[in-house]
């Protein structure tokens, strides 16, 4: 439970800081300049700033953008029961195509489906990333109380350093 409640110094820094915050897993050594960076892309201004920061601060590093469509959002319906069954494949295909188009417009990247934090951590491990960068925006009081957001889960669960940026 301790990792889920936003009471730690690191969590508060990520939540409130107007400057980028680098978080390291417990006992992790201070990282060397990264060679491979996974940039989480949700098409927000904050995510684009994080990608820009990674590319300008670490110009020698390979930066891979990752966009993850959460299960359920690929169809546009929260629950398969809320939609006519025949529309699900078409809606899913449209969402995937739109996400692919947006990702290509930003220079390309990887498009996957699933739990965003879980998929991102698996992708970071698979590509042997040295750093994960992400933009985050305040979501409201619930995010302030619990680490349920993608950003919160990345910071608490990642064995890889996470650089979080936030617009103030």
Automatic annotation (TrEMBL):
Record keywords, A-Z: Plasmid
Domain UspA: 35-163
Keyword field contains Methyltransferase: no
SUPFAM superfamilies membership: Adenine nucleotide alpha hydrolases-like
InterPro entries: Universal_stress_UspA, UspA
Domain of life: Bacteria
The keyword Hydrolase belongs to this UniProt entry's keyword annotation: no
PANTHER family, sorted: STRESS RESPONSE PROTEIN NHAX (PTHR46268), UNIVERSAL STRESS PROTEIN UP12 (PTHR46268:SF6)
Protein family membership: Belongs to the universal stress protein A family.
Protein known as: UspA domain-containing protein
Record organism: Deinococcus ficus
């Amino acid at each position: 439970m301790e990792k889920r409640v936003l009471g730690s110094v690191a969590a508060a820094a990520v939540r409130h800081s107007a400057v980028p915050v680098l978080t390291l897993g417990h006992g992790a050594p201070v990282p060397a300049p990264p060679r491979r960076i996974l940039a989480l892309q949700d098409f927000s201004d904050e995510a684009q700033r994080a990608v820009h920061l990674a590319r300008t601060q670490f110009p020698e590093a390979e930066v891979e953008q990752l966009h993850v469509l959460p299960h359920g959002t690929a169809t546009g319906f929260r629950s398969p029961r809320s939609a006519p069954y025949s529309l699900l494949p078409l809606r899913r295909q449209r969402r995937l195509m739109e996400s692919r188009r947006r990702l290509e417009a930003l220079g390309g990247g990887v498009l996957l489906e699933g739990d965003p934090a879980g998929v991102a951590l698996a992708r970071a491990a698979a590509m042997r990333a040295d750093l994960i960068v992400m933009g985050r925006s305040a979501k409201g009081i619930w995010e302030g109380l619990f680490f349920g957001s993608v950003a919160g889960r990345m910071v608490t669960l990642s064995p890889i350093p996470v650089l979080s940026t936030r617009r103030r």
